[in-house]
């Protein structure tokens, strides 16, 4: 199974206006509860166990997507779908079918039906209950097969002495949001991205470029056999600008800016958009002229959102609860509660209940998780020592109860995921002093230069037992700092790499100005919106490897002209 995370930075937005299909949440929840009750009471196969727990999670996703290339629209789409996930558990909370890491592989992999888990788009009670009936029947049969398979494996496999069970209790929760306002004036916004893409295409050194707008509203309906029923509604908006140039050596040099917003009021006006676009063009021009930096190991300053990528990849994923159990996970911090994993000046928590940061929206905000548990702020590292994990209803050694971090997308089973990861420090240093300390560290290590990372692009990590326990971060702007003069020179061609246990203890100083990193994170339960809030981090040592080169010939002919 895939255990790799991709954390993508998306940092830009715009303005817009109204496309939304409203439903009656109460009516839909009633339909779901009726069918759930019928299945919980009556669903059974002769001589096989009945379900001990059933839940339904339906995601109603509405999207608007627009794209423009070379100053003309190339893509218009509005879409809506309802996707259903049914959790049917057989056995007991102590040991059930979810212990099977490959459910369906032996039985259903040849019978894929793309409409199998799609629910009706209107509020038709009977149609919805029929989909729930079919889905529950299929999931129950698979659950029985999985339960018998994993139970049989215990005949020859020794039990994990730290195994804590499969499922924990949670109080019944009943909650209904007001539907989120989903505003999007398609004509107005298409005009804006056409204007932006035209400006990019008229820049001589840019050979390919585009601008895109995306709006998403997700309504989540959840019921379970313990009596929980909830409806939540959220929106996200983004504007993306991308451009490609070539360096003199033929290397392709990409650049992109993305602005996120949670509501229309947060979207920037035309003047702010033009400022962001002009800055992106200047940076791309500098990048294509910048020299390639050889692999490097030494003092590094992670400024702003680049520190967020580092924290997310090196630490965050390894504190997700399900990664502390089973033989497939590397278990970097398994059994280390109370042990130092960061310098003692640093504390870290995850708070999905934080809605705002400096008057802007926070991508990782949500109120109820995908197992019907209220989102909670959870302390992860206290004064450098490991204090806890991000938990679902799957118990972890010493932690029995969920703290509301079960998340997923589409038809994926929810697992423990970050919401908004926050780093704080009892000792802080001004941004100017951080650079001074960076140069001092480089001199002490005999380095002719140090590195500053600005503006993150993406990151990834691997937490599986069969893979290397490492992470990677890609920064859009990397600067080489001369230790004698302090002068900065833009470079390219490298990416940050490291191993978590070694790298986390290399934090030498923390800045005094927190910065938010909004993005999407993809792991085994799908892509979910996340945020990281952290000041700049001065690292006594970090390693950079050569980026995979991509070189290509220029176009044979020049671009057409009017």
Report on the architecture of this protein.
- 20% of the residues lie in helices and 35% in strands.
- It is an alpha+beta fold and 562 residues long.
- The chain folds into two domains: 7-154 and 165-289, PmbA/TldD superfamily (PmbA/TldD fold, 2-Layer Sandwich); 296-546, no CATH class.
- Helix 1 (25-42) packs across helix 2 (125-153).
- The protein starts with a strand and ends in a 16-residue tail after the last strand.
Name a few traits of the molecule.
562 residues, alpha+beta, PmbA/TldD fold, 2 domains, eight-stranded mixed β-sheet, five-stranded mixed β-barrel, 7 helices, 20% helix, disordered N terminus
- Number of contiguous helices: 7
Radius of gyration: 25 Å
Overall domain count: 2
| CATH C-level label of the largest domain | Alpha Beta
- Can you give the mean pLDDT? 91
Give a short overview.
By secondary structure, the protein is an alpha+beta fold.
């Amino acid at each position: 199974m895939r255990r790799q995370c991709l954390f993508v930075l998306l940092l830009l937005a715009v303005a817009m206006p109204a496309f939304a299909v409203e439903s009656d949440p109460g009516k839909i929840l009633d339909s779901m509860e009726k069918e759930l009750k019928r299945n919980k009471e009556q669903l059974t196969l002769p001589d096989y166990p009945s379900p001990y727990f059933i839940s339904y999670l339906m995601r109603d996703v509405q999207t608007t997507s627009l794209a423009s290339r070379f100053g003309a629209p190339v893509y218009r789409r509005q879409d809506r779908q309802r996707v259903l996930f049914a959790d049917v558990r057989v056995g007991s909370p102590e040991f059930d079918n979810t212990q099977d890491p490959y459910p369906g592989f032996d039985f259903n992999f040849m019978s894929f039906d793309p409409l199998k888990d799609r629910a009706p788009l209107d509020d038709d009670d009977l149609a919805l209950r029929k989909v729930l009936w079919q889905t529950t029947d299929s999931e129950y049969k698979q659950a029985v097969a999985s339960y018998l398979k994993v139970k049989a494996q215990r005949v020859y496999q020794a039990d994990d002495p730290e195994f804590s069970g499969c499922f924990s209790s949670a109080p019944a929760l009943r909650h209904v949001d007001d539907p989120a306002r989903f505003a999007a004036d398609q004509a107005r916004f298409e005009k804006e991205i056409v204007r932006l893409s035209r400006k990019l295409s008229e820049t001589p050194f840019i050979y390919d470029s585009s601008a895109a707008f995306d709006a998403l509203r997700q309504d989540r309906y959840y019921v379970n056999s313990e009596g929980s029923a909830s409806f939540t509604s959220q929106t996200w908006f983004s504007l993306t600008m991308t451009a490609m140039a070539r360096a003199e050596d033929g290397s392709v040099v990409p650049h992109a800016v993305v602005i996120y917003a949670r509501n229309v009021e947060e979207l920037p006006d035309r003047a702010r958009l033009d400022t962001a676009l002009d800055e992106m063009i200047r940076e791309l021009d500098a990048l294509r002229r910048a020299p390639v930096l050889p692999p490097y190991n030494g003092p590094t300053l992670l400024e702003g959102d680049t520190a967020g990528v580092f924290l997310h990849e090196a630490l965050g994923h390894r504190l997700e609860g399900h990664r502390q159990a089973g033989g497939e996970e590397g278990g970097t911090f398994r059994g280390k509660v109370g042990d130092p994993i960061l310098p003692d000046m640093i504390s870290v928590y995850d708070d999905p209940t934080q809605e705002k940061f400096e008057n802007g929206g926070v991508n990782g905000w949500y109120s109820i998780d995908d197992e019907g548990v209220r989102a909670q702020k959870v302390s992860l590292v206290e004064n450098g020592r490991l204090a806890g994990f991000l938990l679902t209803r799957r118990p972890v050694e010493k932690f029995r109860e969920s703290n509301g971090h079960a998340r997923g997308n589409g038809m994926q089973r929810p697992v423990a995921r970050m919401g908004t990861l926050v780093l704080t420090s009892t000792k802080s240093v001004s941004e100017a002093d951080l650079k001074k300390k960076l140069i001092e560290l480089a001199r002490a290590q005999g380095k002719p230069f140090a590195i500053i990372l600005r503006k993150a692009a993406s990151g990834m990590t691997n937490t599986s037992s069969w893979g290397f326990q490492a992470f990677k971060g890609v920064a859009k702007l990397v600067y080489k700092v001369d230790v004698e003069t302090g002068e900065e020179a833009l470079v390219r061609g490298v990416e940050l790499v490291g191993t978590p246990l070694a790298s986390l203890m290399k934090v030498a100083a923390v800045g005094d100005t927190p910065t938010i990193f909004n993005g999407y994170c993809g792991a085994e339960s799908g892509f979910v919106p996340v945020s990281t809030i952290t000041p700049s981090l001065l690292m006594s040592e970090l390693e950079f490897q050569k980026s995979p080169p991509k070189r290509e010939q220029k176009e044979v002919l020049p671009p057409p002209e009017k």
